Amino acid sequence: MDVTGLRVALFSGNYNYVRDGANQALNRFVAYLLRQGAAVRVYSPTTDSPAFEPAGDLVSAPSVPVPGRREYRIPYRMSGAVRRDLRAFRPNLVHVSSPDPLGHRAVAWARRHGLPAVASVHTRFETYPRYYGLAFLEPVIESLLRRFYRRCDAIVAPSESMAQLLREQRMSYDVGIWTRGIDRDIFHPGRRDMAWRRSLGIADDDPVIGFIGRLVMEKGLDVFSDTIDHLAAKNVRHKVLIVGEGPARQWFANRLPNAVFTGFQKGADLGRAVAGMDMLFNPSVTETFGNVTLEAMACGLPTVAARATGSESLVADGVTGRLIRPGAITAFADALAAYCTDPAARAAAGAASMGQAERYGWDQVNQALVDTYIRIIRQREHGALVRSSPVP
């Protein structure tokens, strides 16, 4: 078979009601499938005020707000309406993008109907409890994730470093790569606008340290702010530019009273904001890829990042940026100080970053997932069955 024979039922915990890197990738992929002649049906929670229009046909799944994070919703069951829609659609593959209750039901439905199931991994859920004083739950969550992913025919990760971690955690026999692409019309050095920087109170010779992303604690906001405090104590000249919104904005603003907060940006405005930085600081360890890191690289910026999944596959230490042990405040500050005080080193790392980013095109990376779909369907047709327990 080829892509035109695909009938994909995609289950997502957040397809378009809050914008994030994961659902942007899913929407791009659905649009790619549709352009190639595949049939796609998406099942996800919906709201009256979504962040953006969805790609493809979206069917609403019953959901409830996440306690303490009401902007997010948990799809808690597969309703009769969803089941009827599935039967009418007649998928030949089920794709689950979140290990939530609906995702579990979708995998069970696929197994019951003899259909292959593929799961995409978008974040390191097992690391979230540590940011809320519940680190003791991490082994429990990892065990639950393992049970979920082992019931799928294959899983795909957005980076080789994340794929290797999933193998080490024994999540699946079949771990592939579905990486991320970059929109080069939006992210390139030509977006740099010095007049815009000046309007924010940033001098032309101010080295700008940037943060891009949703403002939530699991993005490492505490490490970021502690590092900036350390940098200030070293009397290193710099400015901090924060691009994004989220529930921790006020906390972050209180910790960094001298930072410039632009709020949420998208499209050309986001490209201008990223290109207006001189380096990206990404201390998060929860990313499985790091879309923002790739966007910064395409704009010619060096990145100082935690040595963690995602970043390890993008940042070449000492070439396109620096990889630092997670939480190492002093080492983070030293790396940022080096780029703040040495424009030549900054420019060299930025040029290397641009070269690296040129390897990532959306059509190429999306076709890799299409190829995985077709391979898994063919394996099922030849009698291969999902194995629930990889060898330790």
Automatic annotation (TrEMBL):
GO terms for molecular function: glycosyltransferase activity. It comes from Sphingobium indicum (strain DSM 16413 / CCM 7287 / MTCC 6362 / UT26 / NBRC 101211 / UT26S) (Sphingobium japonicum). This is Sulfoquinovosyltransferase. Keywords: Transferase. The lineage of its organism: Bacteria, Pseudomonadati, Pseudomonadota, Alphaproteobacteria, Sphingomonadales. InterPro entries: Glyco_trans_4-like_N (IPR028098), Glycosyltransferase_grp1 (IPR050194). It holds the Pfam family Glyco_transf_4. Residues 20-185 form the Glycosyltransferase subfamily 4-like N-terminal domain.
